[in-house]
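Please, structure for the following, as tokens.
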Amino acid sequence: MTQAMGRCAEEIRGCWLQSDSALKEGDTERANRAFGRVFELVDSFPAIEAADVRTLQLLGILTWVKVAAALEATGQDEEAREAQVQAFTMLDDMYGDEEQDAAAGTPAQDITEGLASEESVDLVGRLYLLCSKAGRKDSLRWGRCFMDLDLKVHGENPRSLN
């Protein structure tokens, strides 16, 4: 990941935190603005290197996972399912040709380098759970990715997945 991508990822993480704060306060408008800002950042980042492109794709996917969780928490189940479908569509676009590898349990490319944070651990864990519940072949990939990230962030004292 380039330094510019690292700064962009950190800004996206800040937007995730803003959305959490807004939702805790019941301010859905501010949460929506924070989510919108993430998608603006993803769409406008001039990714040239392949690693940056993969990182941007993953950040977009994780943001859709976050949107789905927020919608589900506010009782908007149909909208949450639509956000999940969006995340799955992006996953298929990102890894479509690697479906056999996913089924065999080959771990995801190390696209989480530089993304180790509490928020990323939570969202990759949620992605794993969504994939598992949907019976997707790539659930093993995301389970392993979650475990790797969790180990990076929490060391030998990993949190449990809710």
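The two ends are 29 Å apart (CA to CA). Helices lie at 3-24, 28-44, 50-73, 77-95, 99-104, 118-133, 139-154.
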